[in-house]
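Our platform keeps sequence and structure together, in a single record for each protein. Nothing more is needed to write down the fold, since each code stands for a local backbone conformation. An entry from our holdings is shown next, in its original layout:
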Amino acid sequence: MRQPKTRLVDIAREAGVSLATVDRALNGRSGVRDETAEKIRKAIRRLETRSIARMPVTGGRIGRLRFDVVLPAGTNTFMNNLEAALLAAAGDLAETGVMLTSRRIEGFNPAALAETIRTVGEQSDGLAVAALENPLVREAVQEVSRNGVPVVTLVSDLSNSRRIRYVGLDNRAAGRTAGYLMGRFAAGRRGKVALIAGSIGMSYRDHDERELGFRDAVHEQFPNLEIIARFENQDNFQKAHTQTRIILDAHPDLLGIYNIGAGNRGIGAALSERGLKGRVIFIGHELTSFSRAFLIEGVMDAVINQDVTHEATEVLRALLHHHQRTTFNLNLGQPRIEVFVRENLP
């Protein structure tokens, strides 16, 4: 754990632990549980974000800042959790004059996303966007950026754009991790594996990168696995449930499912209804109340997670740093790829 720029007593108070526990965690000594160490890391990030917001800047202090986040609407539990984390992180900064507004729009609709970016950007001091890889979206980001509004891409990046930062996983590596896990769980058995994602023809870049990583890892290391197709669920758990039933009907000998995006709730329900718990390998993303329950029940085998608190904090830090234009070194770090099975749930 890196050395903080705030006092130990502040960290202990923010994390709700003792000074001795903070000291042990920061110096890498034994006796600190993983979940306690993570509480301390999150406390440090919150405190450092607040300290950045209060830093003096050339020409005086910053006044009120209005930031906006644009996320897809729908039944995606992860996006709901991310929105809650962003609003909570902004709440920690309320006393410094920072305000965050969340906008939820139709997912997989580049025209709607581009129009929202332009409209909101006219009144915003900074945007965070779950970006679709599409020319309409790219042009909207270029336009608001040229007008001086910083844009951070969140969860899913946008190539060749003027965004100031991407906050999210290395999704190619996350996909490779899923492919490696699928192959190891298969333990040499030959069989078919289905991929389920939000959209086949037009997706978020994170979905495409995860699929590429998964396919690469399987093709390189596990010739016993046959990837049959990528199926669409529009990141909707009800559609995922229907799609999974269709896949199982067409492929009764299915060995595994990799869910690239949202919809774990529907996939897990379909596997449970068919009595396939422990028979079909199921790997997905994001630790939510639903995926956690499926892990405990043995319906899911592994969940690849990203820390929404980390991402929310990094988004605000990047936008604040843009406005303050200080020489302070943020040392912004990408969230780590976390792999959870039922034996190591936090």
